[in-house]
């Protein structure tokens, strides 16, 4: 019997229409716009100025704190500006703009295709290389990888869980990466395990990817440390807490972290980036992006340099369809609508989804019929209808008491609501306000 998480979840139509599309290199842009905050935490601090010339892989911004990550030049050329430009939501963010001139890489980066499987570095040295390379969670959360690997005092990592679920409909970047670069992924997995000092590694993959399950199982067959775990298809199984339960049976407590149950979770894309950082001295300057949608002429999986405008990827896949009504960064469940197509690909850009106009129009909301479907599908065991109402009314103390901060914003509640209520929209607003208040309480001086 296939494993899975126990509470809630949905099975949305998958539309993995790009799963057979091999990864293709994306041409370099003419201009690369590199955001300084491509991670959760403090923005990076620019160390270049207008007029400077840079090479691929050069540090152009250093970490702004412990929960931060450095940023490297994804292209070579001349810095034309260090200022603020709109992100894909239209909000101005600090950026470094580089005019692309050739493709000169730092000599320290190994650009060969030679597989390097051995590593004599200590766990500390591996962690230092991961930190210096600017690695973040590649599944979309963009939490700095070195922070996740720094187990807090009093805690103990017992297992490493690799997220190969890719449960968002349409997205296939991780699937293709497992198929095409499986050996590199497994080397990255072993490096992560060495940093953590764990002997148990589980790779969770949903059984709608049988070729990836078979491929990684075969590659790791002689490694007793690694177990590939097939999982039943259920969204949002890619969520950390859901994946931990599905693989290990352990449940992360409310307000807790994976390390509280001895687990550390990393995405397969992150494992591949670890291989490149440690074995090839290559910082995080590019990633795989799925460009897809039922109206897209050529659904694709592209290897893209950070800083490339989203519009260039769409053009590469056939251009903007006449009947496109919305562009989403990420998947349809947790992705965000894009208002600025000239915004760049970042470390957290897993996909670009184009939705037809008739599918992009939000239906008029009705009245709650007290069906409790949102409660049934909530993977965190919350009461979405109540939390949404409390947030709408500004009753944030009650929302906090209802564990609104446990919401993982998966969208299952809104997806299943027969009244088409914007449940997640209000919950997001309420959660943001509650978390702001929590932070204010923690930073307030002691009486």
Molecular structure report:
- It is a single chain.
- With 447 residues, this protein is α/β, with parallel strands linked by helices.
- The chain folds into two domains: 1-23 and 108-361, Rossmann fold, CATH 3.40.50.11540; 373-443, no CATH class.
- The chain is 28% helix and 19% strand.
- It has 14 helices and 17 strands.
- The strands form four sheets. It has a six-stranded mixed β-sheet with strand order 1-14-13-17-15-16. Strands 2-8-7-4 form a four-stranded antiparallel β-sheet, with no helix packed on it. A four-stranded parallel β-sheet has the order 11-10-9-12, sandwiched between helices.
- Helix 3 packs parallel to helix 5 and helix 4 (182-196) packs across helix 7.
- The longest helix is centred in the C-terminal third of the chain and has 21 residues, at 423-443.
- The chain is globular, with a radius of gyration of 22 Å.
- The relative contact order is 0.15.
Report the radius of gyration as a whole number of Å.
22 Å
CATH superfamily placement of the largest domain: NADH-ubiquinone oxidoreductase 51kDa subunit
| CATH-scheme architecture of the largest domain | 3-Layer(aba) Sandwich
SS elements, strand count: 17
The global form is globular
Average per-residue pLDDT, rounded, comes to 96
Q: Termini distance?
A: 55 Å
User: Which secondary-structure class do the elements indicate?
Assistant: alpha/beta
CATH topology of the largest domain: Rossmann fold
The level of helicity is 25-40%
